[in-house]
Specification:
The protein has helices spanning about 5-10, 10-30, 40-50, 55-60, 65-75, 80-110, 110-120, 125-130, 135-155, 160-175, 180-190, 190-200, 205-215, 220-225, 230-235, 245-260, 280-295, 300-315, 325-350, 355-380, 385-390. With about 400 residues, the chain is mainly α. The protein is built from 21 helices and no strands. The radius of gyration is 22 Å and the shape is globular.
Length: about 400
């Protein structure tokens, strides 16, 4: 307690900001969660009806983090309505914002974190995925968690919390289809930090605990992969049948088109054929792309490029991996662009408070415009779209 109180006194503003942010985002995610649409979509019924509990997790363990939360909530509320059906996804949406905020803060500091997290948490794609009973939300959470673990291992390789937490998080992320292709390269890239942590925790019980946390869930995963070839392909993020080369090429090309020009035809997840990125976010992403192109030798640039390449290939194959895998990377680029623009402005006006305030104010206005557009698109336009009303007609 004596060690905690000085930390609270020193960082009370940061802690208050975190609590306020969690409350605001939580309120945004729960607002009309069960009543925004007239019913559930067929895909939501499929996810909510998947086998849960010990037996269900043993036979179908993939997407384990979400299924654990579903099992707990549905056990206590067996006769669940639309709100309860979507609640586990809402919780992972909130977790993804918290993880994303921690990642941005480790890269760019408080001001950029506040602006970027606001942009991310009010984006239409985030709201669609976090407020729908589907597995896509795990990718919004998993990619920032994977990158944050790498960043923390670099900075705090001797920290017990980081040492054990990274082992546990990786063991859970292995249950998300397709992520094994990202986890293995990340482990290779951070092997020196892992070895430093291993050297710092010399006691036998510390290393035993690390091994147990890292292997905790494997007895659940390995039998399922051995039992079923279909489950193994799903775990790899591969489709049941590989597409023809021309189809694969079209699906690869559809990824940037969906982001920039014309959105995907998924009425469960999207409004019409609007592009996923609005004009303001796209401008920040372009600026961020320019920033990373100038720093192409940096480790972070190569990590993000690796995720973009692997993610685009998995999406192009048409398996279980969707474009949600790339959304965190897109907003990381937006954060870099925003931070780069702001730093350039402040370098021009290092001592002029009016000019500095003007630059920050213009960025804030741009973010506010993007937030307003995306919130109206999701909460007003999408639920009143005729196609949306047709898709969401199943009652619980």
């Amino acid at each position: 307690m004596k060690n905690v109180l000085p930390i609270l006194r020193t960082h009370w503003r940061l802690l208050a900001s975190i609590i306020l942010g969690v409350v605001v985002v939580g309120g945004l995610l729960t607002y009309r969660l069960g009543s925004l649409t007239g019913g559930l979509a067929a895909g939501e019924l499929s996810v909510a009806g998947a086998p849960l509990g010990w037996q269900g997790l043993y036979h179908q363990p993939l997407y384990l983090p979400l299924k654990i939360v579903q099992s707990i909530i549905f056990f206590f509320i067996a006769d669940h309505n639309q709100l309860i059906t979507r609640l586990p996804n809402m919780l992972f949406g909130l977790l993804s914002v918290i993880t994303f905020a921690g990642l941005i803060r480790s890269f760019h500091g408080n001001r950029t974190t506040l602006l970027t997290v606001t942009l991310f948490a009010t984006s239409s794609w985030f709201l669609h995925v976090s407020r729908l009973a589907s597995y896509d939300v795990l990718y919004l959470w998993a990619v920032p968690l994977l990158l944050l673990g790498y960043s923390l291992r670099q900075r705090y390789e001797q920290s017990a919390l980081v040492f054990y937490g990274s082992a546990l998080s990786v063991s859970l992320l292995l249950f998300v289809p397709g992520l094994v292709w990202l986890i293995v390269p990340m482990i290779i890239l951070s092997r020196h930090d892992i070895l430093d942590g291993w050297a710092a925790h010399r006691a036998w019980w510390q290393r035993l605990m690390y091994g147990l946390l890292g292997l905790l869930w494997l007895p659940l995963l390995l039998p399922a992969l051995v039992r079923s070839g279909a489950e193994f392909r799903l775990w790899l993020g591969l489709p049941a049948v590989f597409p023809a080369l021309t189809t694969f090429g079209k699906q690869l090309g559809a990824v940037p088109i969906h982001l920039l020009i014309r959105g995907p035809a998924y009425p469960e997840l999207w409004l019409g054929r609007l592009p996923i990125l609005d004009v303001v976010t796209l401008a920040f992403v372009i600026a961020g792309g320019y920033f990373y192109a100038r720093h192409w030798r940096a480790q972070r640039t190569r990590q993000l490029l690796l995720i973009l390449i692997i993610g685009t290939i998995l999406i192009g194959l048409g398996g279980p991996v969707g474009i949600s895998l790339l959304i965190p990377v897109v907003f990381l680029s937006a954060a870099a662009g925003m931070n780069s623009l702001l730093k350039s402005w402040l370098r021009v006006f290092p001592h002029n408070p009016i000019a500095r305030g003007l630059g920050i104010g213009l960025l804030s206005v741009a973010v506010a415009v993007s937030c307003t557009y995306n919130l109206r698109a999701y909460f007003v336009a999408w639920p009143h779209n005729v196609t949306t009303e047709t898709v969401f007609h199943y009652r619980r």
